[in-house]
Every structure is written in C-alpha cells, then in structure tokens.
Amino acid sequence: MATTLSNEEIRRYSRHLIMPEVGMSGQRKLKQGSVLLIGTGGLGSPLALYLTAAGVGHIGLLDFDVVDESNLQRQIVHGTATVGMPKIASAKQRLNDLNPLIEITTYDTAIDSSNALEIMRPYDVIVDGTDNFPTRYLTNDASVLLGKPNVYGSIFRFEGQATVFSPKHGGPCYRCLYPEPPPPGLVPSCAEGGVLGVLPGVIGTIQATETIKLLTGIGEPLLGRLMLYDALGMRFRELKLRRNPECPLCGEQPTIRELIDYQQFCGILPEVVSLGAQYEILPSELASILQRDERPFLLDVRNPYEVEIASIAGTDKVIPVDQLAERLHELDSARDMVVYCRSGVRSGRAVELLKGAGFRKLRNLVGGILRWSDDVDATVAKY
C-alpha cells in the first residue's frame, strides 16, 4: 500500500491534516494501519463507520450473523434494505459507500481456537465488539499471544465500559481484570436485559478513538485505565487497572501458552436446551392441547416488562426464572404444567429447577414465544 496520500485523499481527510497532532504523518499511519473488528453489531457499527471514515487502510470485519429487524435500534451500519443479509455483507456495502479508498476484508465465520490466531495475525489492532464471555476471553488470549493491543468495550442496558488491554505495552489483559468468568446465567445477555440504542454509539466511538490513537501514536491511550459510563446519570468514572503479576496469561510465570476451549472454560450450555422428549412440547402441540377442557397450567418465566410486549393467551402465572426457587410454594406439582419464555432457554433452566424440586408433570415450550409466533399465532409480537 502506498505511503503517500493522493489529492483525493488529501481532500477527504483535510480536517485531519490541518490538526498538527495528526497531519500528513498521522494520516499516512492510518492509511498503513490495519484493524480487525470482531463483531459488526452494536459496538461494531460505530467502530466500522468511524474507522472507515478516518481512513484506516485495511479493516477486517468478522461476524457470522444476519441482519435482523431487532438489530436496527442500535446497529446503525445496517438498514432496513439489508435485513436478512449477512452482517458482514451489509456492513461492507455501507462502508464501501462511505469510503471506497480503503480495503475491507470480511470473515463470515465464528471465531474460535482453531482460526483465531490465523485471522488476527495480519492486523495491527484487534477491537473487541463481542457480547459473550467465551469470545472475550478468546480475543484477549489470542491478542496477548500475538502481542496485539486489544481495544475492549462492553455494554448492557444503560451502562458501558472501555479500556485498552496490551501487556506488550505494560498494561494488563482481560484476565487481570476478570480472572474467572461469571457462573453461566448470572449475567443476562442484551437479548434478555436490553440495551439503550444510543449506548453502543458512545462506547463504540470511544473504542474507535482509542484505535486511532494507537495507530497514529498520539495522545494517552486507555492503558491501565477502565472507563465506566452511566447513561442514566450521564457520568463517566475511571478505575485504575494494574497488570497482575500472577496472571496465568500475561504474568511473570504464565501457564497459558495456547488457546483453549472457551465454551468449556465459561461453562456455556448449548443455546438449544434439550430436556428429553418427555419434558418438551412443540407450539403446535400446545395449541391443540389448549383447546381441551382440561388444559395445562401455563407458567411464564420471563420478566414482567417482557410480558407487556407479548404473551400467550391464557397464561396462568408469571414468575421470573430468577425468582422461581423462592416461589415454588405458589405452584401445584400435581397439575400438568407447560413452562415458556422468549426462546426456550430460560424455561429449560426453569424445568430443570422444577424437576429437582420434585415436579414431574411439566414440559418446556420448545422455541418459546418466538416459535409460538412463527408456528401458531403470528399476531403475537416477536422481540
């Protein structure tokens, strides 16, 4: 890639060039730089847009999801016209229009221990725009093993955080901050807990700023500092981070020298909870049974604010899954019971809990209210 700037590039990036901190030298560094964005969702959208606009010469986009209508509330690189399209294709289409002068490489795959090092190796900076713990640990570990800075961000509901993990530059890694993942199910996902649509814009733009600073060598990066953002209170806080000398990855005597099975490390269960046929029921089967005189007891284990969005007619009781253990006395173990949630995952956990408490006449609604809407009643809203 040429290190000089064309007249077209000078016109495009002129507001950078007249800043002495950036200038021609800094813009050439951006043109020579390469960044891998892991995820093109809420965080990846503003990241991709601003890094593309800034003139980063080579951007890699990694994602294996497709654009869904529910994404558009926050994933601004996508649009209504690209619903159903692979996210990397949707993003590349928008980014090529924003700046056709840069190179974009797409990876339509899930990143895992078998391909992470190969995919990440060609890039100068790795940016973590993921929303799950296995991929965060994987991204962190691979970045440290390759000596790459990892620009980290995470969001949930109204809160976000960002930092730069780079032991090579004297800072900590993700494992220094979070040595162990939380127990499975303790931290709800954005799909379960929601996220304010503009929040990833704030955090993603901060990540993009840090990436530009790393590539150009200007300013003071968020190295050894964790920035916390509270959107409701409109407050920023900063916590000092130190490298842990006993960290198994970046400490003085590291024991992690290769990538591991991160799903197993985080104790993640498959998204499809299989309880056995005797404890499962399809929406079409439930619809037929509900027409009978002796109908089963319908238990909804979602949160009350989800019930306001949509529910199955005739639901007998709502007990959020995290309250279920304390409210078993409200249920009759002698009655046939069908448990449901949004997708069947939380209700699967609820059925396991009920089984352990001695309930036997119960079944999990496969696919939850989403599949109920698809297979039985399209008037039930999907979210």
UniProtKB/TrEMBL annotation:
Any one Pfam family match given in the protein's UniProt record, by short name: ThiF
Gene3D superfamilies for this protein: NAD(P)-binding Rossmann-like Domain (3.40.50.720), Rhodanese-like domain (3.40.250.10)
Positions of the Rhodanese domain: 292-381
Keyword annotations: ATP-binding, Nucleotide-binding, Nucleotidyltransferase, Transferase
PROSITE patterns, per the entry: RHODANESE_3 (PS50206)
InterPro entries in the cross-refs: Rhodanese-like_dom, Rhodanese-like_dom_sf, ThiF/MoeB/HesA, ThiF_NAD_FAD-bd, Ubiquitin-activating_enz
Molecular functions (GO terms): ATP binding; nucleotidyltransferase activity; sulfotransferase activity; thiosulfate-cyanide sulfurtransferase activity; ubiquitin-like modifier activating enzyme activity
GO cellular component: cytosol
Protein name according to UniProt: Molybdopterin-synthase adenylyltransferase MoeB
Protein's organism: Candidatus Viridilinea halotolerans
Gene label: moeB
